[in-house]
Amino acid sequence: MLSGLLDRREFLRRLAVVAGCTAAAGVVLPFLERNSAWAQITAKDDARLISEYVKYAGETGDVRAYFARPKGDAKLAGVVVIHENRGLNAHIEDVTRRFALEGFLALAPDALSPLGGTPEDSEKAPALLDNWTRKKTRRISWLRPSI
Known about the structure:
Layout: H1 8-32, E1 49-58, E2 61-70, E3 78-80, H2 90-101, E4 105-109, H3 125-139
Parallel strand pairs: 3-4
Antiparallel strand pairs: 1-2, 2-4
Protein backbone atom coordinates (compact mmCIF):
# COMPACT_ATOMS: atom_id res chain seq x y z
CA MET A 1 0.00 0.00 0.00
CA LEU A 2 1.49 3.33 -1.07
CA SER A 3 0.33 6.79 -0.03
CA GLY A 4 -2.83 5.47 1.62
CA LEU A 5 -4.02 3.69 -1.53
CA LEU A 6 -5.14 0.06 -1.49
CA ASP A 7 -3.39 -2.44 -3.69
CA ARG A 8 -5.58 -4.59 -5.94
CA ARG A 9 -5.51 -7.64 -3.65
CA GLU A 10 -6.61 -5.68 -0.55
CA PHE A 11 -9.31 -3.87 -2.52
CA LEU A 12 -10.76 -7.16 -3.80
CA ARG A 13 -10.64 -8.67 -0.30
CA ARG A 14 -12.58 -5.75 1.18
CA LEU A 15 -15.01 -5.75 -1.73
CA ALA A 16 -15.72 -9.46 -1.17
CA VAL A 17 -16.50 -8.79 2.51
CA VAL A 18 -18.92 -5.99 1.64
CA ALA A 19 -20.54 -8.00 -1.16
CA GLY A 20 -20.87 -11.04 1.11
CA CYS A 21 -22.53 -9.00 3.85
CA THR A 22 -24.88 -7.41 1.33
CA ALA A 23 -25.83 -10.81 -0.08
CA ALA A 24 -26.43 -12.22 3.40
CA ALA A 25 -28.62 -9.23 4.33
CA GLY A 26 -30.59 -9.71 1.13
CA VAL A 27 -31.33 -13.29 2.11
CA VAL A 28 -32.25 -12.55 5.75
CA LEU A 29 -34.30 -9.33 5.38
CA PRO A 30 -37.35 -10.88 3.66
CA PHE A 31 -37.74 -13.19 6.64
CA LEU A 32 -37.80 -10.27 9.07
CA GLU A 33 -40.00 -7.87 7.10
CA ARG A 34 -43.75 -7.66 7.52
CA ASN A 35 -44.08 -10.68 9.75
CA SER A 36 -43.64 -9.78 13.37
CA ALA A 37 -45.05 -13.19 14.33
CA TRP A 38 -41.67 -14.71 13.44
CA ALA A 39 -40.12 -12.60 16.17
CA GLN A 40 -42.43 -14.20 18.74
CA ILE A 41 -40.69 -15.10 22.00
CA THR A 42 -43.61 -16.33 24.13
CA ALA A 43 -46.03 -18.73 22.43
CA LYS A 44 -49.72 -17.82 22.27
CA ASP A 45 -50.58 -21.08 23.99
CA ASP A 46 -47.95 -20.86 26.76
CA ALA A 47 -49.25 -23.11 29.56
CA ARG A 48 -48.16 -20.63 32.25
CA LEU A 49 -50.51 -17.91 30.99
CA ILE A 50 -54.12 -17.07 30.39
CA SER A 51 -54.44 -14.76 27.40
CA GLU A 52 -57.49 -13.59 25.49
CA TYR A 53 -59.05 -10.75 23.56
CA VAL A 54 -61.39 -8.59 25.60
CA LYS A 55 -63.64 -5.61 24.91
CA TYR A 56 -64.41 -2.69 27.17
CA ALA A 57 -66.40 0.51 26.78
CA GLY A 58 -64.42 3.42 25.36
CA GLU A 59 -65.25 7.04 24.55
CA THR A 60 -66.24 6.21 20.96
CA GLY A 61 -67.50 2.65 21.45
CA ASP A 62 -66.04 -0.72 22.35
CA VAL A 63 -62.27 -1.01 22.51
CA ARG A 64 -60.73 -4.35 21.62
CA ALA A 65 -57.68 -5.31 23.65
CA TYR A 66 -55.35 -8.22 24.23
CA PHE A 67 -55.14 -9.34 27.87
CA ALA A 68 -52.62 -11.71 29.43
CA ARG A 69 -51.94 -12.81 32.99
CA PRO A 70 -50.13 -15.60 34.77
CA LYS A 71 -52.27 -18.54 35.84
CA GLY A 72 -53.38 -18.46 39.45
CA ASP A 73 -55.36 -16.19 41.74
CA ALA A 74 -52.61 -13.94 43.07
CA LYS A 75 -53.21 -10.19 43.23
CA LEU A 76 -50.95 -8.57 40.67
CA ALA A 77 -49.97 -5.11 39.52
CA GLY A 78 -51.13 -4.11 36.06
CA VAL A 79 -49.32 -2.86 32.98
CA VAL A 80 -50.84 -1.21 29.92
CA VAL A 81 -48.89 -2.01 26.75
CA ILE A 82 -49.23 0.78 24.17
CA HIS A 83 -48.61 -0.25 20.58
CA GLU A 84 -46.60 1.73 18.09
CA ASN A 85 -47.91 2.93 14.74
CA ARG A 86 -48.40 -0.61 13.38
CA GLY A 87 -51.34 -1.26 15.68
CA LEU A 88 -52.14 -4.24 17.87
CA ASN A 89 -50.10 -6.83 16.02
CA ALA A 90 -48.48 -10.17 16.89
CA HIS A 91 -45.38 -8.44 18.29
CA ILE A 92 -47.39 -6.31 20.73
CA GLU A 93 -49.35 -9.38 21.80
CA ASP A 94 -46.04 -11.13 22.43
CA VAL A 95 -44.78 -8.19 24.52
CA THR A 96 -48.02 -8.39 26.51
CA ARG A 97 -47.45 -12.09 27.21
CA ARG A 98 -43.87 -11.38 28.29
CA PHE A 99 -45.09 -8.85 30.86
CA ALA A 100 -47.54 -11.46 32.12
CA LEU A 101 -44.68 -13.94 32.52
CA GLU A 102 -42.95 -11.35 34.70
CA GLY A 103 -45.93 -11.38 37.06
CA PHE A 104 -48.19 -8.60 35.77
CA LEU A 105 -51.73 -8.30 34.53
CA ALA A 106 -51.03 -6.96 31.04
CA LEU A 107 -53.49 -5.22 28.74
CA ALA A 108 -52.76 -4.01 25.20
CA PRO A 109 -55.66 -1.89 23.85
CA ASP A 110 -56.08 -1.45 20.11
CA ALA A 111 -56.06 2.32 19.52
CA LEU A 112 -57.59 1.67 16.10
CA SER A 113 -60.74 0.07 17.56
CA PRO A 114 -62.91 3.10 16.64
CA LEU A 115 -61.85 2.56 13.02
CA GLY A 116 -62.57 -1.16 12.93
CA GLY A 117 -59.34 -2.30 14.58
CA THR A 118 -55.82 -2.87 13.37
CA PRO A 119 -55.88 -3.82 9.66
CA GLU A 120 -54.48 -7.14 8.44
CA ASP A 121 -51.89 -5.21 6.40
CA SER A 122 -49.78 -3.45 9.03
CA GLU A 123 -48.56 -0.98 6.38
CA LYS A 124 -52.03 0.64 6.42
CA ALA A 125 -52.09 1.19 10.19
CA PRO A 126 -49.85 4.31 10.39
CA ALA A 127 -52.06 6.32 8.03
CA LEU A 128 -55.22 5.27 9.88
CA LEU A 129 -53.71 6.13 13.23
CA ASP A 130 -52.39 9.48 12.03
CA ASN A 131 -55.74 10.48 10.54
CA TRP A 132 -57.66 9.41 13.65
CA THR A 133 -55.38 11.20 16.11
CA ARG A 134 -55.52 14.39 14.03
CA LYS A 135 -59.32 14.39 14.17
CA LYS A 136 -59.25 13.79 17.93
CA THR A 137 -56.72 16.60 18.38
CA ARG A 138 -58.83 19.03 16.35
CA ARG A 139 -61.85 18.19 18.45
CA ILE A 140 -60.16 19.52 21.57
CA SER A 141 -58.20 22.31 19.87
CA TRP A 142 -60.57 24.93 21.29
CA LEU A 143 -58.91 24.30 24.65
CA ARG A 144 -55.66 25.83 23.44
CA PRO A 145 -55.17 29.48 24.32
CA SER A 146 -54.98 31.96 21.46
CA ILE A 147 -51.67 33.66 20.91
